[in-house]
Each structure stands twice: as structure tokens, then as C-alpha cells.
Amino acid sequence: MKIAFTTATINYLPRAFTLASSFLRYNPAYDFHIFLIDPYNEKVEPFLHDKIRYLSIEDMHLKELQGLTKNLSISEISFSLKPILCEYLLRQHPEAEYVLYFDGDICFYHQMDRVEELFETCDLILTPHFTHPVDDDKTPTELDILRTGLYNMGFAGFRNTPNVFEILAWWKNRVLQFGLENHDLGLSADQMWMSLAPLFFNKAGLLDHPGCNFAYWNIHERRLTINENRLLVNNEYPLIFVHFADFDPNHPEFFTNPENFNRTSPGENLALDKLCEDYAELLKKNHFRLYHGIKSKYAVSQGKRALNKMKSSEKWADRIKFILIFLVSLFPRWLKKGLRNFSLFILRNIK
């Protein structure tokens, strides 16, 4: 038995279903689980599939859930659930050979042969953000990646071994303590911690196949082409799965949010443009427009979370900190981006 899973709020179901259905098309031997952060309701019905299992985390009675939903954003909750749900699946299905996790904004174009080969010698499989230096001054930079972690946790593979249970226990402990996404504090939710995993644990392997986890952060080293209707990376490797992080199907001309990415422009790579157009159409076919505006039960703004923490804290130092967080949350995005770019300018030019 082999298992793959993801998490999703109700409004993220079009992406999660696109991931699951594309994965199963090329990897039919797997069972796929979609864990709903929101309650299970009638809105799940359009996405029912005989190989996809849906389960609301509220129905699982996880002891960690209350602390997560009280203190974290909806994205941080999703990130922090990864080790918890992976451990849950391995305990519920002891016959499983391994469990694969994927972010919901991934789409598949080929089978996962390379991953199964790695499991012959590895217990844990990670994908590096990239494997070649960034030699230009465009965004994202190597510094941006260092601030978020060496490995992209949009994918991870876990073989059913005692070693993996030790890894998951360690990872879960760190995420429950420091599950915030705050790059200024060196925190990147679940992802940052996995930079340490190959140092602490045995049998950690790297999935460095250029066709795996193709995304905006590694596009400087990977060029997409079409050869006889086959999608290839660097004219050699089959495209296996693409991570459409921060992709807006209403603007498929952009591979990701242009505010955080300027390494390529629309029209520079026709194969990439076609890939984005096709993915946008697939999301729209899977009810993206209908579900996009649905608000998650646990969607709370950064400012409101800071105010709630301030009210519950008895320490003046904490109250001041939360007030500052609330005030920063009110800054417009352009101001935050300007402050970030100014900081990078200082780092690069003033010795």
C-alpha cells in the first residue's frame, strides 16, 4: 500500500482536487487523502472520486488542533499539520510502505519513478529549492531561499520505518513550538526545520531530478520545452510535477506573483506560457471561480490574531510586541515590499 496526501480549506479544494486527480492519473497504485481543515459539508461533493478519501481534521479529534487554530494563520495551520497527519496515516495504515506529502498547488505530468527508486535506500526524501547558484540580481535571490529553508516542503516522502517516526516526532515538536511564518525572525513554519533533518537523522535522500518540483524558485536552472508533445526540462528530463506556488488562474500569463518574482516575463518561454494557461483552465474546470471566494472557518487576519494575543497576555512586554505586530499588519503591501528592497540594497552595497 502506498499513500499520498495533502491538506485543503474548502476554498482550496479546486487546487487540491487538481493535484490528486493528476497524481492518480500517472500513479494509480496510490491511495490519495485530502485532509480538510474546514468541516466536511456538501461543498465537497463535486470533488468526490473513488480513489480520493476526504477527512475533516475536526472529526479526527487531534489534541494539537486547538493550539494551532488559536495562534496561527490558516497557512501556518496547514504547514504545521504536515508531520501530525503523516504520523497519523502511518499509524492508521501500518501496512503502508511509504507516505508522500504534496502541497495543494502542485500538478502532475508524469509518474513518480525516481521517488520509488530513492526509497530503496532512503527513509526521508526532500527536494532542494535549487541545485545551482543564482548569478543575477533578480528575485528570488539565494538570500531569499536561505531565509525560508534549503528544501521546499511542498513535497516530502516518508518511508514506514522507526527512523521516520523519530523524524516526525522531532519535526512535530519544533513546528508546534515555532510554527510561525516570520522570515525576519528566521522562521518559516514547517519548512525551515527540515534544513536540519539530514544532519540529525540517517537515510535522508535528495530528490534533485530537474523535472520534480519545477517552480519559480528554480527556473534559473531549468528551462521548459515541448518535444513531440512531451514536456521536457533542459531538453532532457521529463517534467514530473510543477509547483504553481502563488499562481493566479485569473492571470495565467504570470507563473507566479510578479511582486515577488522578476526572473522571467510573459512571452519569454512559450512552453511555460502554455503550461500556465492549461493549468489555469484545469482549475477553472474544477470550479475555481465558484470556490475562490469562500472564507475558511479558521481564516483570521494577522492583526486580529495579534490583538487576541494581546488581550490574553498578562505581560506588558508581550502586549507591546503584539501592538507592534498589529501596527505592521496595517502597512500597505507596497510599503512592506519597499522596506524589504531597501534592506537588500543596504546588505549588497554598504560594507
Q: What does this protein look like?
A:
This protein is globular. The strands form four sheets. It has a seven-stranded mixed sheet with strand order 3-2-1-4-7-6-10, with helices on both faces. Strands 11-12-13 form a three-stranded antiparallel sheet, covered by helices on one side. The chain has helices at residues 13-26, 65-71, 74-92, 113-118, 142-146, 162-177, 197-200, 270-285, 288-291, 302-312, 316-329, 333-349; strands spanning 2-8, 30-36, 52-56, 98-102, 106-108, 124-128, 151-159, 181-182, 187-188, 204-206, 224-227, 230-233, 237-238, 241-243. The protein folds into two domains: 2-294, Spore Coat Polysaccharide Biosynthesis Protein SpsA, Chain A, CATH 3.90.550.10; 301-351, no CATH class. The chain is α/β, with parallel strands linked by helices and 351 residues long.
